Amino acid sequence: MPLSLLVIVTILFSLQAIRVSRLMIAALWLAGASALLSLTFYILGAYMIAVIELSVGAGLVTVLFVFAITIAGEEAGDLSSLIPKPLAMAMVILPLAIMGWYALPLTVTHMPVTEASLANMLWQQRALDVFVQVVLIFSGVLGLLGVLQEAKAPLKYPAVDEFAAKRERELQALHQQSIEKETI
Amino acid sequence: MNLTPFSITLIGVLGLLGVGLYGLMVSRNLIKIVVALQIMVKAALLGLVAAGNVSQQINLGQSLAITVLVADTVVVVVGMALAVQIRRQLGSMDVKELSSLRG
């Protein structure tokens, strides 16, 4: 019962995150969905991922969203979708119905499995994943620099003309210097 | 109708996937698109953990989910960077405005 309730409320929170027009409110609904999802993970026995989802999914990502929305600003009004909403709904329901048709009557046969600890699994058996994560974190840091980067003022004239004018000014300065030397 | 925890979780996966897909299709704001993408990734995380739970290999499911979570966070950072820079350059985060590059 708690699991089904959690799943339903998580879906409702996610739906609200899509439905609301204000971006800041959408980010907060998403944070709520993440927090509920971490509870679901806890019930399913995935304690480590529950903690990480709560701190990263509900914490860090929400901070990033709020930060980016504060920098970029809210867009006024709700934009109409490019494709009609009933068509989008049909395009969502059809593949999900097919997936549900195949997935839901799934019967699982329990086999006795001896599983390694999470530390062993993460650092030894799936060590390559950890290296990939390091590379991903590095690209994430570069992405963050992209958020923080100040916008350069747009060029007044085409880049070629700007360069030619700068070169012309430098030549004139050199010419002026040589004239001054000759007069001395 | 008596649903097992695995069936309930699978319904949750399908529900979150549907909400995310719908959001991707109807949203025109770049940040809203990243929110929809986040919801779809949460569906994938739930699926991984549920599969680990039902196959009694929860640590395998968790280790895969951690990788997905890291990749997802990087996607958010890069998406936000793109959205902020596009807003600065074009003054809008509407994806329809981005079609100005079309030949």
Characterization of the model:
- The complex is a heterodimer of chains A (184) and B (103).
- Among the domains of chain A are: 1-76, NADH-ubiquinone/plastoquinone oxidoreductase chain 6, subunit NuoJ (Four Helix Bundle (Hemerythrin (Met), subunit A)); 151-184, no CATH class.
- Chain A has 184 residues and is an all-alpha fold.
- In chain A, helix 5 (118-125) crosses helix 6.
- Chain A is built from 7 helices and no strands.
- Chain B has a single domain, classed as Orthogonal Bundle (Helix Hairpins), CATH 1.10.287.3510.
- By secondary structure, chain B is mainly α.
- Chain B contains 3 helices and no strands.
- At the A-B interface, helix 1, helix 2, helix 3, helix 4 and helix 5 of A face helix 1, helix 2 and helix 3 of B.
Instruction: Give the averaged pLDDT of chain A, no decimals.
Output: 84
Relative strand content of chain B: under 5%
Reading the helices and strands of chain B in chain order gives HHH
Our Rg estimate of chain A from Cα atoms comes to: 28 Å
* Largest inter-chain contact set: A-B, 83 and 74 residues
The CATH class label of chain B is Mainly Alpha
Low-confidence stretches of chain A: none
Write the layout of secondary structure elements.
The complex is a heterodimer of chains A (184) and B (103).
Chain A: H1 2-19, H2 23-43, H3 47-72, H4 85-103, H5 118-125, H6 127-148, H7 159-183
Chain B: H1 5-26, H2 30-54, H3 58-90
Helix pairs in contact in B: 1-2, 2-3
Features:
heterodimer; A: 184 residues; mainly alpha; Four Helix Bundle (Hemerythrin (Met), subunit A); 0% strand; elongated; B: 103 residues; Helix Hairpins; 3 helices
